[in-house]
Prior knowledge:
The protein contains seven helices and five strands. It is mainly alpha-helical. The radius of gyration is 19 Å and the shape is globular.
Amino acid sequence: MLPFSRSCKFQMKRGGGKSMLIEVMFGVQQDDSDIFESSQSTEAIFTPDMMWPDSYAVAEAKFFRLMARDIPHSSFHLRCLQVCACIVVGTDFSSCTFKTVVMHFLTTTPLSGWTRRDFPLRLLEIMRYLRHRLKEKWLNHFFLGNEGMPEEIVLPSDIREAEQLNLFQHLEQDPVAHAEAMHEVEELQDRLRRLLKDH
């Protein structure tokens, strides 16, 4: 067992020197919903140890499973998400931002268009969607106040009925940060085009 402040980490070793790290997060379910209070730290610079933020991980997993049911190639949207997570490494964009973008994008595009041959086009469209949201300085939290949430995803009433939360609100108040984000998304688009061209 390895020391860690917010979870249990176990390093499992097998013969031949191979090892695997397993991290167990703690969570308390809100009523019978898919939302948990989690010991997982947030992207905030400092989260006090006694503060457990909301975790939407179970609701997100359920959403992606629901999408897989209706998408022609069930794991295709997850591959898009994986590529997006890879290209943001080393940038100020978080994988959570891209996950939110992909979830919104899935609900605004016909699911029949998520086929293998559409893979490059979907990736470029996801990037354009992010650029548009940045330009508008507006990206809604996917679960808070989302009236179009499938019934299978169980949300507490205060989350379902909450006002929508703009995840890019800080960019409205900081023109320098907004300009830097716009510049970075242009670089990400170039990075993606090069990646698609090489493959």
